[in-house]
Amino acid sequence: MTAVFIGAATGILSGFGIGGGSLLILWLTMVQQLPQYTAAGINLLYFLCCAPAALVSHIRHHLIEKKIALWCILAGCLASPAASLLAGLLPMHWLRRGFGILLLILGFRELFSRTPKQ
């Protein structure tokens, strides 16, 4: 039942753009003791279920800039296979540390960035 609650909570947070997928990876690796590769795969499946609802909501509220989105899609399609191959070659502890550092950088950025006044 805990897993269902965690999945629902991270799904709701993802819908708000808070980073539920990152929280899910932390849960799967630190609490459930799953390998990083397995947690990443589960996170990708999870993303496929959560992303369409969030995308529809963002489109409906005109929060998507189509030109920027197109460039991001193209860059993602090109970079994903290379990143996947690289991740398969790296030792697990490097991936965990790299992911931890990324989360710290993003956390500090969110804490200390100023939002422009509207």
TrEMBL record:
Q: Tell me yes or no: is Transmembrane among this UniProt entry's keywords.
A: yes
Keyword check for Ligase, yes or no. Answer: no
State the UniProt keywords alphabetically: Cell membrane, Membrane, Transmembrane, Transmembrane helix
Q: Where are the transmembrane segments?
A: 12-31, 37-56, 68-88, 94-112
Indicate how the chain sits in the lipid bilayer: Multi-pass membrane protein
What Pfam family does this protein match (any one)? TauE
UniProt subcellular location: Cell membrane; Membrane
Q: What does the sequence similarity comment in the record state about its family?
A: Belongs to the 4-toluene sulfonate uptake permease (TSUP) (TC 2.A.102) family.
Q: What is this protein called?
A: Probable membrane transporter protein
